Amino acid sequence: MAGAPATVASLRTALDARAVSARELVERALARAAALEPRLHAFVSMRPEAALREADEADAHLRAGGPRSALDGIPVAIKDNIAQAGEPCGCASRILEGYVSPFDATAVARLRAAGAIVVGRTNMDEFAMGSSTEHSTHGPTRNPWDPARSPGGSSGGSAAAVAAGVVPLAFGSDTGGSIRQPAAFAGVTGAKPTYGRVSRYGLVAFASSLDQIGPLARTAEDCALALDVVSGHDPRDSTSLPEPPTRCREALDGRAAGLVLGLPREYLAADGGDPAVLRAVEEAARELEKAGASLREVSLPHTRYAVATYYLVATAEASSNLARFDGVRYGRRASGARTLTELYERSRSEGFGAEVKRRILLGTYVLSAGYYDAYYRKAQQVRALLRRDFEAAFEGCDALLTPTAPEVAFALGERTADPLRMYLSDVYTVSANLAGVPALSVPCGLAHGLPVGLQLVGRARDDGTPLRLADAFQRRTGFHLLQPELCA
Amino acid sequence: MSAYEAVVGLEVHVHLATRAKLFCACPVTYGDPPNRSTCPVCLALPGALPVLNERAVELAMRAALALHCKVSTHSVFARKNYFYPDLPKGYQISQYEEPLGAGGWLDVQPDGAAAPRRIGITRIHMEEDAGKSIHEGSGPGTRLDLNRAGVPLVEIVSEPDLRSAEEAGAYLRALQGILRAVGASEADLEKGHFRCDANVSLRRPGGPLGTRTETKNLNSFRAVEGAVRSEIARQREVRERGGEVRQATLRYDLERDKIQVMRVKENADDYRYFPDPDLVPLALAPERIEAARAALPELPDARRARFEASYGLPESDARLLVASRELADFFEAAAKAYPAPRSVANWLLRDVAAALREAGRGLDETALRPDHVAALARLVDAGRLTPASARGLLPELLSAGGDVEAFVRERGLGAVSDAAVLEAVVADVLAEQPKAVATFRAGDEKALHFLMGQVMRKTKGQADAKQVRELLRARLGAGG
Lengths: 488, 480
Description:
The complex is a heterodimer of chains A (about 500) and B (about 475). By secondary structure, chain A is of the alpha/beta class.
């Protein structure tokens, strides 16, 4: 693929000008996947026939009366934990072997109604538990920038698919950074919306109070276009915000003037961060300053409790959310069990991977009588304090600017033996989930030849401001256009 | 007099009378083919989410208010985590730390008790029902029917204020009456709308509470009364022997009237309750609660008191009438059409009740209307129709309805109360039966009955028996 990578916006122009057809875009995506998959393994399943059929329908629509939405005729990929009717929804887990969802997630239904074409399902850490896409029953996804490295996780497949130019847009889920950290590691833009902005109906729950579906794309503009399609109140999700779909795209004016960026003292001073990463982030801050934003230091005093709080809340919810995978009604059931208890024990022992088991055990413990107050209740109290930290910080600024991850993509296998170290790499991302605020990651340079992510965090419900800042940054810089050699 | 006092508390699970399940739109059905009424939500498919049925909230709120509970403006749905095949999500959504209502009461008066006793209601909370495991039938293994999974329930927990099996039974009947009166539940035990767990312990009067046992899944009034009676007796025997009652979960075998130990509890189950993050807390504005309170219909106790005071009914009749809201409404409509409430009540509670039993139907399953009963009572009271003829019309009125006056006219059922007509008939009979006349005059009273029977035969049962007897005595005494 020569020249600048295709974006949703550029493909929209080409489709509307009849310079390309949806069928050609889907054919290209399928061909590129076929060529790269042996090296990347970004996908767990493809749907070539259905995608081509839908492309022809999109082309007919485009001929008949113009596009149904900005995404009409655009090939997209979705993470394996977002349900689509008639497709497997395996969450990269053995326990959902053979399971085919009979219904569409609300986000998928909205994408399909908008004319977007799902070409395949992307790899992930099992049930979205992980930061490396190595905890998958299908094996790891590789980083297009260096196949020996992880693309991050848990939405590593979606990040790799966009970074490698297979699709211009993919969807992931973010519980503690699972969109933003892989976006940073793979050099793409990824946004976690405000909690409740995108319906969770059809997203297989990891931690219900933290999970959000969001887009990964080349640009902030593409993320805005995608969010405008999938967001909006859904009566099937009680935690969905009551508001109509966002109109983020129209707020992108390329300007940062008048906006105040807060630099959280606790993040930039954090120990253990790669100095090259911090340098790239500081340069990005200066670039935004040049664009008219002003910088000021702010404080999020409870930051040091965020990772611990996150792993208490997330595992507690997960231990209950994953109870439905019992081998009784669907998915994998152990054969030859003689008692009910044996059926449960064996189905779940054989069906779940080590990381999922670790978190179920931890979460079960956290909720147990006698420990509930010390762990779960305490974590909820700290969560309230963290939320207040953000509210206080946003009294003096419009968005926060931080690194997305303390490091660049690490080597496959490097962290799997040390779960605690893996958890600590979530230090910059988990707070946004605990507070429910919108946050995104944009590429802001390279360190050691690998992409660095800049995180922009907004006020709750203000998904537009981080996207507007990211868009202004991308209009002034070319980091989001850098492509790995693999894809050249 | 026993040295021990029984301490009984009941936990009652009641199906709310909604059309849809608590967290999805599946219809609530009974007797459907297995798993017909299911969807991704109640099957707990990956990615499905619960959404609260507001109608269930409305009905639960009514039940709470009718039981004099304080309804909370903020209540929380929690997850009760445990594994069982009939529990698709691996947890039951139930209110735990913050229930919908608390601190209510209910007045209870068993048959024969001199006065009612006030029984405390600890709490009332909303939750979803589980499905059913089916163990019988052909083939190996257990099969599941998830039609019931997610059906809305309220659990109503009483204080341990009950002191006998009779009070337990009376409590349940009163509860049933109230829930029906406010339309919260059909409260039909046969359909499993109403399931009860009984906690029983003994203590010396005024002493500390003893160890309690819990008898599960009592599905009829008879089962609750039998279980409580048997368990009180069992615990008394254990203690009188010098033994110790152990904390246990029990089962009651109604056929054999026997308590069986299911399992002895060493320590409490750990259900790892926590607030369900898929649902938001249930917020009820004070205005909404007050509106629900204002819209409550008259409750059975108040209605009974009114029936006694304004209709002059005996307490027993009033109690029977208000046991069902439908019967009480029917009575009031009939008593309005014919303002002789005691007579109307008599007809309803005796003759109509008997005819319904005979037909094996409920009042709402018949064509009988209040004006039918009013007309029957009025005609009988006026002497225009005999009770026997009136009763004879009931089966037809039950099955097809119709115009009572027209029936009486067209079928010649009008009672013969015209003295002239009757006297002529009596004269005829006396002339035809000289032998019986002679026997009576010889002092045999039985002959009078025979003669009365003859008059009734000639009048096709439409003569008033009292009037006939008087006429006969007058004629015979007069030496005719």
